[in-house]
Amino acid sequence: MDESFDVIVVGAGNGGLAAAATTAKGGLKTLLLEKHNLPGGCATSFVRGRFEFEPSLHELCMVGSKEKPDLVYNIFQELGAKPDWQYERNLFRTIVKGKDGYDVTLKAGVEPFIDSMERCCPGSKKAIKKLFEYQTNDWQATQYVTKMKGKPNPLVMAFKYGNFMRMASHSMEDVLTALKLSPKAIDILCTYWGYLGVPTDELSAFHYWNMMSTYIIDGAAMPKCRSHELSLSLCKVILDHGGDVWYNSEVTGFLYNEKGEAIGVEINHERKIYAKEIVSNLIPNRVANLSPSSAVPERTKRLINARSFGISTATIYLGLDCTREELGFDDYTVFISSSRGARAQYEKRDIYIVNCLNKVIPDATPKGTCTLFFTMPIFGDDIPSDMTPERYEKWKNEIALKYIKDTEETLHLSIIPHIEEIEIATPVTMARYLGTPTGTIYGYQLSGWDNLMARIAEERKDITVPHLSYCGGHYMRGDGFNVAYYTGNLIGHRLVKKLKGADIAQLQPGTKAAKAQQK
Fold first, then answer.
1. Contact (CB, 8 A) for 22 and 488
2. Mapping DSSP to helix (H, G, I), strand (E, B) and coil, where does residue 376 land?
């Protein structure tokens, strides 16, 4: 029997969860479809032995607190989801090995951050204060450009958002160089490039600094029960507001009418479900492959073929039979490299990150234990082209051993004797689990012509199939938990407004709009 909904959301990743929670709370009959037996996509957890591991979340920016909420906190608060947020006040430790290297720990908070930069790079204080001045109206400016559908008034941009224009039109390294910061200061400030997958000599200064400054201002946040807690809290919102979540329900086709409008989806090659609006948390390449060629507009085909896939990762998860203190791991986030500068680190794949969740959440593991989480940026095509199933296990084990030994040597630790559980993931794992080409976890690269501002300005043109919207990491703001939640929430609000004629706040019980809907 055919079934119909107001909204079908395909994929229970971060963006899909936020979209479905928003439309369900807005009173739309909502169905969220997920091919796995758990929600979350990357925002989930898995168990090996007595350890529960966080698969992907290092730390979340743009959260803020109850006293000073930021974007993510406000979205969850609006929806009624209540994660237990934990915070880390050390921004990161970064180590570059070798004669010209350094070992620096930076603090969160504007003044502590500036002071820690000044200690390691004397004379940098004035320039870094200038960076924070440039950042002050970045978010308001992008909201304005979005509201104006990519056609903002040039005078408004020049006079009201002049600082934004300075940042958006140059790379991060161009801005830092113009501020006359030392090469060492530039290298340290650009450490976070790996979180965006694009080196800072081609990454928009607005994009990079907007991300980094929110980590500095708010501190890094993590849910106490790993990112699976975030996913479950959003699922609860969907169910509490009459929505449905169907697991083990892989979308194997998108359905269109004779006008080329999206009208529904096919599940598991057999069941057809219909809706007024479809929201895809799947990467557009995947949607195109699951659609009749005639239903995919030529502009969409050209766009997805022109874009470059973003970086993926190899990851190592270690469960250790000793505490963090016994191990001697005193930080939450440590970046380690042998090369100075984001470009060299990118081209050589010469950087990796080590996290210890117990630094922020001491009881994240059983008593007397701790976990370490290694992340190495890598592209899918970095995998040897002649890889075989027999060689694959040996290859990924060699990767794990290389980075574990390097960490032992760099941080003067003894890790290997304490390994109780180990799991290794590669771009092959990501491709299988996420269904993304080359196993990319960052969607498409945000660089060159396909930068953040271009995507925001052209966003409405990218949605060319009537009644089909996108959200998530491959969408206009790129990847990251925070922007995935934002895009899902944004699309959800648009659909509530479109189908209900009012926004969510106006539709709350007791309001005039809610009473009109009931009639």
1. yes
2. strand
Interatomic CA distance for residues 320 and 418, integer angstroms: 5
pLDDT value of residue 513: 57
What stretch of H or E contains 110?
A: helix 110-120
Helix (H) or strand (E) segment spanning residue 31 = strand 30-33
Using an 8 Å Cβ cutoff, are 407 and 354 in contact?
yes
Domain coordinates in residue numbering, the chain = 3-63+226-307+447-518, 108-216, 312-378+384-425
Structure tokens at 381: 């095509």
Q: Which amino acid belongs to residue 296?
A: V
What CATH number was assigned to the domain covering residues 3-63+226-307+447-518? 3.50.50.60
Distance from CA of residue 96 to its chain's centroid?
26
Query: Coil, strand, or helix at residue 103?
Result: strand
Q: How many separate helices (H) and strands (E) can be counted in the chain?
A: 20, 18
Dihedral sign from CA coordinates of 505, 507, 508, 514: positive
What does the DSSP 8-state code read for residue 448?
Answer: G
pLDDT digits (tens, 9 = 90+) for 131-143: 888 766 666 777 7
| Cβ–Cβ < 8 Å for 273, 4 | yes
With b meaning 16 or more CB within 10 Å and e meaning fewer, what string describes 264-274? Answer: bbbbeeeeebe
Q: Are 164 and 149 in contact (CB under 8 A)?
A: no
Pairwise CA distance, residues 282 & 437, whole Å: 11
The identity of residue 163, as a single letter, is: N
Q: What is the pLDDT of residues 364-423, one digit of tens each?
A: 999 999 999 999 988 777 888 888 988 999 999 999 999 999 999 999 999 999 999 999
Count how many Cα atoms sit within 13 Å of the Cα of residue 21 in the half-sphere of its side chain.
30
pLDDT digits (tens, 9 = 90+) for 442-456: 889 888 888 887 887
Q: Report CA Rg, the chain.
A: 23
DSSP letters for 258-316: TTS-EEEEEETTTEEEEEEEEEE-S-HHHHHHTS-GGGS-HHHHHHHHHSPB--EEEEE
**Mean pLDDT score, 83-94:** 93
Question: 108-216: what fold?
Answer: Guanine Nucleotide Dissociation Inhibitor; domain 1 (1.10.405)
Say whether pLDDT at 188 is over 90.
yes
**Gap between the terminal Cα atoms of the chain:** 29
Q: How many CA atoms lie within 13 A of 279 on its CB side?
A: 37
Q: Which amino acid is at 283?
A: I
